[in-house]
């Protein structure tokens, strides 16, 4: 099995030499054990770095041809850099890992083992992350649970450290969406999956490239790319307000008929405000429903992926990579 390890790098000059050393040592070890082929490779994807990252990659490549480089024309963000690497790398199985050695390199050996045992996708799952701040730990935990609640398929406590076999990557190629949230798409692919637990370490060098702003934007991407629940909440809210206005109207009638506290003009002013507000929300919710459908359609996601067929079958086109689907 030829392994490719994809490493997105954004301004990672400080840590790259160490990452390269750790990954080549791992490839040597795995090749020696006969777990992967000798021509397995590492692909560093330079995501438009503004420091010396690319020249470091060039140097690494000159010293060891197994260390390859892919340079994006400008910074496109972690998810796009990752996708570029996954789709461009050669190999029978592709592992994606961050450049900063926070993910345990040794877990790749366990992933390869799972892949050899028949898994097509192996998720790295953080068992502990003692080195991340309490804030990051708690928000991440809550976020993945919220996402699951909103109906997205997510693997809890899994970031983008995973192994995918060639056919899983080819299936991923059939997802042409631009608003990329790989953690939500990969579990949609299906196939046989497995998990490998690991402890998340501290960044080996350099600083985090995910400030709060980027974390929030990735999180928002995750929700809006994989869930129409927020739009449905508008409909629900519209219903509630409409019902509320009905109750208000009944209450106003009751006051008028059975007490002498009725204020002239109050009901005819206030009740319509709530009623119309509710109706408007409801209408926005209905538009939202159609918008959600439109959004799902324009994503042109494959409707199914054939894993295996026995006997002669035709090309369905639904999962043919790169083809347009109707
Ligand atoms: N990264 C990238 N492009 C970006 C931001 C980050 O390729 O625009 C890479 C970065 O080089 C690293 C990975 O994404 O390999 C994860 O970033 P980081 O480790 O800084 O995030 P954290 O672990 O702090 O959440
Ligand atoms: Mg990191």
Provide an overview of this structure.
With 326 residues, this protein is of the alpha/beta class. The protein folds into two domains: 251 residues, Spore Coat Polysaccharide Biosynthesis Protein SpsA, Chain A (Alpha-Beta Complex); 71 residues. The protein has ten helices and seven strands. Strands 3-2-1-4-6-5-7 form a seven-stranded mixed beta sheet, with helices on both faces. The two termini are 35 Å apart.
SSE inventory with pairings:
Blueprint: E1 3-9, H1 16-32, E2 41-46, H2 53-63, E3 67-71, H3 78-88, E4 93-96, H4 107-116, E5 121-128, H5 134-149, E6 158-165, H6 166-173, H7 182-185, E7 193-199, H8 212-226, H9 229-258, H10 266-298
Parallel strand pairs: 1-2, 1-4, 2-3, 5-7
Antiparallel strand pairs: 4-6, 5-6
Helix pairs in contact: 9-10
Bound molecules: uridine-5'-diphosphate and magnesium ion.
Rounded mean pLDDT is: 89
User: Span between N and C termini?
Assistant: 35 Å
Order of helices and strands: EHEHEHEHEHEHHEHHH
Which blocks of ≥5 consecutive residues have pLDDT under 50? 320-326
Task: State the major sheet.
Answer: 7 strands, mixed
Short summary:
The chain is built from ten helices and seven strands. It has 326 residues and is an alpha/beta fold.
């Amino acid at each position: 099995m030829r392994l490719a390890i994809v490493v997105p790098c954004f301004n990672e000059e400080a840590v790259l030499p160490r990452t390269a050393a750790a990954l080549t040592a791992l490839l040597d070890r795995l090749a020696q054990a006969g777990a992967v082929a000798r021509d397995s490779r590492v692909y560093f994807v330079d995501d438009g770095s503004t420091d010396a990252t690319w020249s470091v990659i060039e140097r690494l490549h000159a010293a060891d041809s197994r260390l390859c480089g892919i340079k994006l024309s400008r910074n496109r963000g972690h998810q796009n850099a990752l996708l570029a690497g996954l789709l461009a790398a050669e190999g029978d199985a592709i592992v994606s890992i961050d450049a900063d050695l926070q993910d345990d390199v040794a877990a790749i050996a366990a992933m390869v083992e799972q892949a050899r045992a028949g898994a097509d996708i192996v998720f790295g799952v953080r068992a502990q992350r003692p080195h991340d701040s309490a804030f990051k730990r708690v928000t991440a935990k809550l976020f993945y649970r919220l996402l699951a609640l909103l109906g997205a398929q997510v693997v809890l406590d899994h970031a983008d450290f995973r192994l995918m076999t060639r056919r899983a990557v080819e299936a991923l190629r059939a997802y042409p969406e631009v608003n990329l949230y790989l953690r939500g798409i990969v579990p949609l692919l299906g196939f046989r999956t497995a998990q490998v637990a690991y402890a998340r370490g501290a960044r080996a060098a350099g600083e985090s490239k995910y400030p709060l702003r980027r974390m929030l934007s990735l999180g928002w991407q995750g929700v809006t790319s994989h869930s129409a629940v927020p739009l449905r909440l508008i409909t629900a809210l519209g219903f509630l307000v409409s019902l509320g206005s009905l109750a208000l109207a009944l209450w106003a009638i009751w006051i008028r008929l059975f007490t002498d506290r009725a204020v002239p003009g109050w009901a005819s002013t206030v009740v319509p405000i709530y009623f119309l507000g509710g109706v408007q929300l409801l209408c926005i919710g209905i538009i939202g429903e159609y918008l959600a459908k439109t959004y799902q359609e324009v994503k042109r996601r494959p409707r199914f992926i054939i894993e295996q067929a026995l006997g002669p079958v035709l090309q369905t086109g639904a999962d043919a990579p790169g083809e347009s689907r109707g």
